[in-house]
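Q: Predict the assembly, please.
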Amino acid sequence: MIRLSRRSLLAWLSSGAAGLAFARPARAEVAPHAATPVPSFTGPGVNPYWNGINPFVSYPQKLPLLRMTDRGIQLETPRPYFLTPFTPNAAFYVRYHLDLIPNAVDLATWRLNVEGNVERPLQLGFDELVRNFKAVSVAAVNQCSGNSRSRFQPRVPGAQWGNGGMGNARWTGVRLRELLASAGIKSGTVQLQFQGLDRGPGPEGKGADVVMKSLPLTDPALDDALVAYLMNDEPLPMLNGFPVRLVVPGKFGVYWTKHLTWIRALTSEDTNYWMASAYRIPDTPRANTTPADAASGTLKTVPIGHVRMPVRSFIVVPDGSSKLPPGLPVRVQGIAFSGDGPVVKVEFSEDDGRSWLEATLGADHGPYSFRTWEHTWKPSRSGKHVIAVRATDRAGHVQPDAPVWNPGGYLWNRVERQTLIVGAAS
Amino acid sequence: MTSHRGLAIVLLAAAGALAPASTALSQATKAPGLVTEGVYDAGNLGMSMQPAPQNDDGGAVYAVPAWPTYTPPLADGDGKALVQSFCGICHSTTYITMQPPLPGATWEHLVDKMIGTFGAPIPEPAAKTIIAYLKSHYTPETRKQ
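A: Predicted assembly structure:
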């Protein structure tokens, strides 16, 4: 228990680095009982809320999350869980494409298969994977390609995420490259294909039976890739890919195959639905285009694996659900990340993005992790305020303040804002 | 096994049985380690029970209970039952209510994609009714709930 005198409390509140001096205890989550609930849908305008508008539901091994769809299962992480750099496993978002999701896996018969154009096909049991290969850890953000899709205008069909289709964890497992070396990748291998145990009831070969994703063998992102059997030092929840999942730091979550069971060395480019038709982006800056150009059918597209996740930052608290009393400093907190190297700067704006002040960064957990930030803001008056945040990564990318549009609803990374009401004192 | 299940679901769907189907497969050769998949619990809205501690069964099977379903009601109208049975073959109708209001042409394109791209076994007349239903209840002009 930390005890502070009134004077030291005031000094602490007014210091710009309030809260960085000591580690926060785990935060108890606020029960989501709304005085005024959000509507049952948003659109055709933009979803104005931080999360999607879906209700809290309960799933095995999970805290209450926001139900986007229930078969297949897509669950969004509520905003308060992003106060900490590591997202609890039980609060980590869930995104499946198809509905035959494992309920039970037998590790006595489960094998990780490394096959295709290899010298020695591998069929590794869980214990062999853990025992025979070096354990490596990396903190990395997993973000859905369509995170924040509900910000698009005009709206596009697909999973209507707010900002909670993301999470950060400390992943521990085996280096993909070490497994590949063990199998002996033969020359002529072009891509590696990844497939998990989850499936769908559709006819074979049309995309509704299995999901397969492929990356070029030479992609540098694979140098950092892991086959992970621990998530935040615990076994993976079933809905996050038990017993192992692929971790590809810097790339969007669609490549992080859950329940990973097959790794295939391909001698020609993967033409399955999930590579040739789905998850493709315009080959333009920020993958930006217009509805007219998209409808023309002449747009050149590339798999979303061609890019790394663009730099983003978020305001987590205050969340605008309560008025702020006047005269008190406001501790604004959030997270930032980039798939393209570490975040080096986070800036805070108290005037809707007209002027910017550098915020204080939290502990560095590595280039692919969430980085927490905070800023103590002293509102100058009562009434409505719009605060904003933007981040810069090591590659020099600054979050833009312009929207993006493409037909898939991918790569949203505009500057984030929060409207706050400072109340009256008398 | 999968196609057998698919057929069973189509028959169920045609018979108007709307509860999500569940299946239990053991396919060590096709999908190593997979014991059960796609087990959903229909109508688990509201309360759910706390899990009891796991017993030591000496085995290597790691299991979770059925996935609960939380499917909001669809708008009442002609074609609702067809939407529930045919769209429900592969996914819950939450995939419809989750969307923002979409233009009629977009709904038409999405139904065509389910049939043409994904192979949904929806006969032409049913597809027409489904598209008409979606246009009647889920466009910017028509959406109420």
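The domain at 2-137 of chain B is CATH 1.10.760.10 (Cytochrome Bc1 Complex; Chain D, domain 2). Chain B has one domain: 2-137.
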